[in-house]
Design brief:
The complex is a heterodimer of chains A (455) and B (326).
Chain A: H1 3-27, E1 45-49, H2 56-70, E2 75-77, H3 85-93, E3 100-104, H4 105-113, H5 121-126, H6 136-140, E4 143-144, E5 147-148, E6 151-152, E7 158-163, H7 164-170, H8 182-192, E8 194-196, E9 199-205, H9 213-218, H10 237-251, H11 256-263, E10 280-286, H12 289-295, E11 301-304, E12 306-307, E13 313-316, E14 320-323, H13 331-342, H14 344-361, H15 373-383, H16 390-401, E15 406-407, H17 415-430, H18 436-454
Parallel strand pairs in A: 1-2, 1-3, 9-10, 13-15
Antiparallel strand pairs in A: 3-14, 4-5, 6-14, 7-10, 7-11, 8-9, 12-13
Helix pairs in contact in A: 2-13, 2-14, 14-15, 17-18
Chain B: H1 2-6, H2 12-22, H3 27-57, H4 64-67, H5 79-86, H6 88-121, H7 126-134, H8 141-151, H9 158-165, H10 177-189, H11 193-204, H12 208-216, H13 221-249, H14 253-259, H15 276-285, H16 290-315
Helix pairs in contact in B: 3-16, 5-16, 6-10, 6-11, 6-13, 6-15, 8-14, 11-13, 12-13, 13-16, 15-16
Classes of the chains: A alpha/beta (455), B mainly alpha (326).
């Protein structure tokens, strides 16, 4: 072979490589309005993103909803994995937009304000979804500028868990572990906490700040943000007082450093959790935690409402929601799927399966707390039966009623930054770097700026 | 004379270009470019391309709407850079990053050099100890982050238990803002295996005759170390100094996992652990201010370039390359 031929061959090989590279780059370009990479036309595929932890309740409803979609001739593509902002943004950027997403309700406002989610009015109308059956507080967490951008799933209401054994050992009356009278709670906190050789061995009352700071402010009947989500109210007199009080509860333990260092050693989700291990006197916590307690080592607990200054129960809701991203190619299927996942019959079916499972295992069924009031009523009237474990039976009776007294922090166009502002403010006080007033003044400025920038 | 004055003499650059083109007559040149083509493609598509894009984004309001193509990207000039000055957390994050870098770089170099010198002297089971010292480098950073929280826990951590045995009350490493960076820095020293291997190779390359000559001249161990060992391994020290400084300025995973991500609820994330890249990540992927985050990235890039340039200038006095005329 002559050298010229060889050179020509080499040039051809290089050219071929360039073509392959160029082709691969071209295929990586975003597709234009359904020209490529779309679902097969032979049968639609509903792509779902963000449904992470699949316990029996999630999987059971998923199976039901998948059957509903498959009955229409379409397929469901639903890879395991929780919602992740970075991954979702990557999918938006590559125009590989999922038809349906499962995300935290506190994220809905941020995405809705940025035009990344579709309002669900048409979906709700076309599928005849009865939004009146949903908890108002849960709906408030997915409503932005008067429009619903998601449909909520669970409620995760917060109640107080009291460790009866700790109260007995400390000589504290369980009735004194309450939030109506802050002076009494502070006294109980001091008695409940325990130390050994200068080292904490039991936290008295954990106020769970920063996370539950809005709940402590609600004690005064105040909110951290206006109802329309556009005006931060972080440095009100009431917010400052709530922060000063809750930080005081922590400082009674010798300061934040000691408190947190000890708290970090807890086996929070384990069998020997902090209640079972007598490392905690009492704390407000979401409803899911009763499951942890039921499955762990034996505990002796009392469930109580978190009460406001007048003694009325209050609770704060949190959880996930289903939402439809703008650019979804199968909105009709997405709506059908949401409806099937959240229908009363689906909730009841999985509740029955879990109840039977728990019964077979000889463990307590601590209930399902959905954002659908009708489902809750039917589950607890038709399926739930007291298990003979008075503590958990009483807890369930309390948890069923709790959502009636719920509130939610309204959505803002900068939900993540708004939350970060008050979380950072609380942390600055916990670390002793600022007074409550200074910290919340700074938080107010940061939060309002973030909201104004995102409007 | 006039003709000489008007004749165009080819300059070095055009001569170089001609030679470069002439090289393509050789088959080897084509092969060479063929072989480096994948790297060139990777560099352009995965490094240079995104860098240029981020420079553009830093001058725009790039966010979720623009990523998804729902809205057009608007040019905002230097607005994002101006906002960097207004945001006190940018300054906090930069300060944290510098302090952490100043703590880690010398500590890592000293520990790695000490280990390398021990290994260089070990005759028996040297391979075993090399492996043992290198093993922590293979530990995933996320696992290291969880280890930090466990070992350095102020109440029941192993570190404080150990300090108690010698009568020192340990601090609250993971909760006290004054001790968060030192605990991260100490833990980072655990992973000096890579640096140690570089030093070990450099130490092995020092001619024994130099030590023998120094010893004959009456130089003791310290003198030999400062006058023979250090100058002879100075290129390796300089290389690791640069690399570790850049790594320190880009610190992210351990601190993020321990205080902002999987290792924590994220709610109690202390400002003391807010490194520059962590804040950049949060701005981009939690608050969706991509333009602002891009501006942060470019400021950090500029800082790294300046720091590295200063290191190069200063190094001229301290780094000795064999065969170099000084």
């Amino acid at each position: 072979m002559s050298s010229r031929l060889k050179r020509s061959g080499l040039v051809l090989a290089l050219a071929a490589l360039c073509v392959v590279v160029a082709a691969s780059m071209a295929s990586a370009q975003p597709w234009e309005s359904g020209t490529a990479a779309g679902p097969s036309q032979a049968g639609k595929t509903l792509t779902i993103y963000g449904l992470g932890g699949r316990d029996d309740v999630a999987q059971g409803r998923l199976d039901i909803a998948t059957k509903v979609i498959e009955a229409t001739g379409a397929k469901v593509e639903n890879p395991v994995g929780g919602f992740n902002d970075q991954a979702f943004l990557a999918r938006l950027a590559s125009r590989d937009i999922p038809d349906l997403v499962h995300m935290g309700r506190d994220s809905v406002g941020t995405y809705a304000a940025r035009n990344a989610l579709l309002p669900l009015a048409n979906c709700i109308r076309s599928e005849n979804i009865d939004t009146k059956a949903y908890r108002a507080a849960a709906l408030a967490q997915v409503r932005y500028k008067g429009q619903l951008y998601g449909l909520p799933e669970f409620t995760n209401q917060i109640t107080i868990v009291v460790n009866n054994d700790a109260a007995r050992k400390a000589g504290v009356n369980v009735a004194d572990i309450q939030t109506t009278n802050w002076k009494r709670l502070k006294q109980a906190n001091k008695k409940l906490l325990a130390q050994d050789g200068g080292r904490l061995t039991r936290i008295g009352f954990d106020p769970k700040i920063p996370e539950f700071f809005p709940l402590w402010v609600k004690w005064f009947g105040k909110d951290l943000i206006s109802k329309d989500g556009l005006k931060a109210q972080l440095n009100t007199r009431e917010a400052v007082a709530a922060l000063a009080y809750t930080v005081g509860l922590i400082n009674d333990h010798g300061g934040w450093n000691r408190f947190k260092a000890f708290r970090d050693t807890w086996d929070f989700f384990g069998r020997n959790n902090m209640i079972a291990a007598d490392q905690l006197g009492a704390f407000p916590i979401e409803s899911f935690y009763y499951n942890v307690l039921a499955e762990g080592n034996p505990v002796n607990i009392t469930a109580k409402f978190f009460t406001n200054r007048k003694g009325g129960p209050i609770t704060m809701l949190s959880g996930n929601a289903w939402a439809i991203p703008r650019g979804s190619r199968n909105q009709d299927l997405a709506c059908k799927f949401i409806k099937a996942m959240q229908s009363v019959s689906s909730w009841k079916a999985v509740a029955k399966a879990r109840f039977d499972l728990r019964k077979r295992q000889g463990r307590a069924f601590t209930g399902l707390y959905t954002a659908n009031t009708r489902a809750d009523v039917e589950i607890f009237e038709d399926i739930y039966q007291p298990m003979g474990n008075k503590q958990f039976d009483d807890a369930v009776a309390l948890l069923v009623r709790a959502p009636r007294y719920a509130f939610a922090v309204p959505l803002s166009p900068a939900s993540a930054q708004f939350r970060q502002a008050w979380v950072d403010g609380v942390n600055r006080v916990l670390e002793g770097r600022q007074s409550p007033r200074q910290a919340l003044d700074q938080a107010q400025r940061e939060a309002q700026k973030a909201i104004d920038d995102a409007k | 004379m006039a003709s000489v004055a008007t004749t165009r003499v080819p300059g070095p650059s055009s001569r170089g270009a001609r030679r470069w083109l002439a090289d393509f007559r050789e088959r080897e040149t084509w092969y060479a470019y063929l072989f480096i083509l994948p790297w060139i493609f990777g560099f352009v598509a995965l490094t240079a391309g995104p860098m240029v894009a981020s420079l553009y984004f830093s001058l725009t309001d790039y966010g979720v709407q623009q990523i998804a193509g729902f809205e057009k990207t608007s040019y905002v000039g230097l607005e994002n850079y101006r906002e960097l000055l207004d945001d006190p957390r940018v300054a906090t994050s930069l300060k944290n990053t510098f302090v952490y870098t100043v703590m880690t770089v010398p500590a890592k170099m000293i520990v790695a050099l000490s280990l390398a010198m021990i290994l260089a002297r070990i005759a028996y089971a040297a391979g075993f100890f090399r492996t043992v010292f290198y093993l922590p480098d293979l530990t995933p950073p996320v696992a290291i982050a969880i280890l930090i929280l466990t070992l350095f826990n102020g109440s029941f951590g192993v570190v404080n238990r150990g300090l108690e045995l010698i009568g020192i009350p340990g601090p609250f490493w993971t909760t006290d803002p004054n001790w968060i960076k030192p605990s991260l820095a100490i833990m980072s020293v655990w992973t000096v295996g890579g640096t140690m291997v570089i030093y070990l190779a450099a130490l092995k390359a020092v001619p024994r005759q130099l030590y023998e000559a120094a010893a004959m001249d009456g130089a003791g161990p310290w003198r030999r170390f400062f006058n023979v060992t250090l100058p002879m391994i100075s290129p390796a020290l300089f290389f690791t100094f640069i690399v570790l400084t850049i790594a320190g300025l880009q610190a992210f995973t351990e601190a993020y996992t321990a205080y902002f991500g999987a290792g924590s609820t994220g709610a109690e994330a202390p400002d003391a652990a807010l490194f520059n890249v962590i804040y950049l990540f949060r701005q981009a992927f939690e608050f969706f201010n991509m333009g602002f985050a891009s501006a942060m990235a470019w400021v950090l890039f500029a800082i790294i370039m300046v720091v590295t340039a200063v290191q190069f200038v200063v190094s001229r006095r301290f780094v000795f390359y064999q065969g170099e005329k000084r």
